[in-house]
Design goal:
The complex is a heterodimer. By secondary structure, chain A is an all-alpha fold. In chain A, about 80% of the residues lie in helices and about 0% in strands. In chain A, α1 (about 1-30) runs antiparallel to α2, α2 (about 35-50) runs antiparallel to α3 (about 60-70) and α3 packs antiparallel against α4 (about 75-85). Classes of the chains: A mainly alpha, B mainly alpha.
Chain lengths: ~90, ~400
């Protein structure tokens, strides 16, 4: 039982970490500090990890971030970062 | 003057060649998850590796033998074959992790999946070993590896608190995640005291024809080179603790680790991380391929030497070619590079006594070492760290496997 509780806790920590990763990647991309190829891949990875982890509902906004990065739409990324960070 | 230049080059290459995929992955994960509290583990590993590297150089200088060659002769082939096979298997896993590290660096840069880089990177590695001399392999990658000093500079840019830094050198247990903490202790020490490092160094002393006039130079290179190298590993922990932990990022994949230098260097930070990862891993892969081929050739009494043409040491060059091909295949299969790295390092710690303890016996054998046998203090330090780490590995690896399911 304790082991199961610990595993759930680890999954939640992992999901929160991927959510934070997505925000930081998007912020750095928006400021021109990381290349687009990396940002797209990192956001896709974050979305996959969230969808299969403890916070599947957090995957959708990350997908929106990735789509905005793919379009090269920095204004949309800036708006989405503010929205996600405010939740 | 020539010897002083040699010592300086030896120190510089030890610094530039210290960091590898294991040090980067374990330190990044440690700093992001536990802040500065695992600095002591790097310090412990660095102390042990200073002793082991100095001993391996001294052993080759005084006895004229490499470690593997001497272990086989001293203990007999039957007693030697099991630890030898275990060490080779670990070398193969670590080589795959290093190749994977280069491939991940290229993936970060281009967005093209790391598996697709496995064959080109393995071919580049093989071609370099086929064409280059020992000095080119040893010095070239290590000099380029000085780029990893960017982690040390980043500490000053980000501004670490000296009191918190000092507290990190006192061993402690966290209130939560203890199993993962202990697993990271084992992985960090395994990454720092990789057997290939001192097996390579021992063979290098023979390749470079070191004689007894190099005893002091060997001591200086081992002490200063490994100390400064350990400092870079510690810097990775500090940078991850300052840049990733406050943002709530734990390092489970290299995509997360790649962010750690951006707060210090802005746009350059990402590229400095990619360059550090690629160069450190490629340099370590060169050394590992050679160390494995040295070990096999010395075990079976074949001709060996990177300074020989491939046709003059055909079985030696075939061995490193086979190792590179096998490691390339492991990367091609697509195993998670970060998990492969962490488990390779933990298993390295587990099998460390199989190489280190027989080596200690040799270091105390006057038939090999004459008046240069080990002091009791050296024996105690290495035996204690190696055995304690292996026991910790036995406990923490199953716990980590259960926890990661």
């Amino acid at each position: 039982m304790a082991a199961c509780g610990d595993q759930d806790e680890q999954k939640l920590k992992s999901a929160r970490s991927w959510s934070a990763t997505a925000l930081v990647v998007a912020r750095h991309w928006e400021q021109g500090e990381v290349p687009t190829a990396y940002a797209k891949r990192a956001l896709r990875k974050a979305s996959e990890e969230l969808a299969n982890g403890a916070l599947p509902e957090a995957a959708e906004p990350v997908d929106e971030l990735r789509e905005a990065v793919e379009r090269g739409d920095r204004a949309a990324v800036r708006r989405l970062i503010t929205e996600i960070a405010g939740r | 003057m020539k010897k002083i230049l040699g010592i300086a080059l030896g120190i510089v290459t030890s610094i530039g060649g210290f960091l590898d995929v294991g040090s980067i992955a374990t330190s990044a994960q440690a700093g992001a998850a536990f802040g500065l509290s695992l600095l002591w583990a790097v310090l412990l590993g660095t102390i042990c590796v200073i002793f082991l590297v100095e001993m391996s150089g001294r052993f080759s200088i005084v006895s004229g033998h490499t470690i593997i060659d001497a272990i086989r002769k001293r203990f007999g082939f039957a007693a030697f074959i099991v630890p030898f096979a275990a060490t080779l298997l670990v070398n193969l896993l670590v080589l795959a992790a290093e190749l994977g590290g280069v491939c991940v660096a290229l993936q970060l840069l281009t967005g093209i999946g790391f598996q697709l880089w496995a064959i080109p990177v393995a071919l580049a590695l093989w071609m370099l070993l086929w064409l280059a001399t020992f000095d080119m392999v040893e010095n070239g990658a290590a000099l380029l590896g000085l780029v990893t000093l960017c982690f040390v500079v980043a500490i000053f840019v980000l501004g670490a608190e000296p009191v918190e830094l000092a507290a990190g050198f006192v061993p402690s247990l966290p209130a939560e995640d203890r199993a993962h903490y202990l697993f990271l202790v084992v992985s960090i020490i395994g990454a720092t005291i990789a057997p290939y490092l001192f097996l390579f160094y021992s063979s290098g002393a023979i390749e470079d024809k070191w004689d007894k006039s190099y005893i002091t130079a060997n001591r200086v290179i081992a002490t200063l080179g490994m100390s400064f190298g350990g400092l870079i590993s510690m810097a990775v922990i500090v940078v991850a603790a300052l840049a990733l932990k406050p943002a709530g990022i734990r390092v489970e994949q290299y995509e997360q680790a790649a962010l750690m230098l951006v707060p210090a260097y802005g746009g350059w930070g990402f590229y400095l991380f990619v360059a550090s990862l690629a160069i450190a891993c490629f340099g370590a892969a060169l050394e590992l391929s050679l160390a494995s081929a040295y070990s096999v050739s010395q075990a079976f009494g074949w001709n060996w030497g990177e300074n020989l043409k491939p046709r003059e040491a055909a079985r030696f060059s075939t061995t490193y070619s086979a190792f590179i091909a096998a490691a390339g295949l492991i990367v091609l299969v697509g195993l998670n590079p970060m998990k492969l790295t962490l488990f390779s390092m933990a298993i390295t710690a587990l099998v460390l006594p199989l190489t280190a303890l027989p080596f200690l016996v040799l270091m105390n054998d006057p038939r090999y070492m004459g008046s240069h046998v080990n002091s009791r203090f050296s024996n105690a330090v290495v035996a204690l760290i190696v055995v304690l780490t292996a026991i910790l590995a036995v406990v923490s690896i199953p716990l980590e496997l259960i926890g990661s399911k």
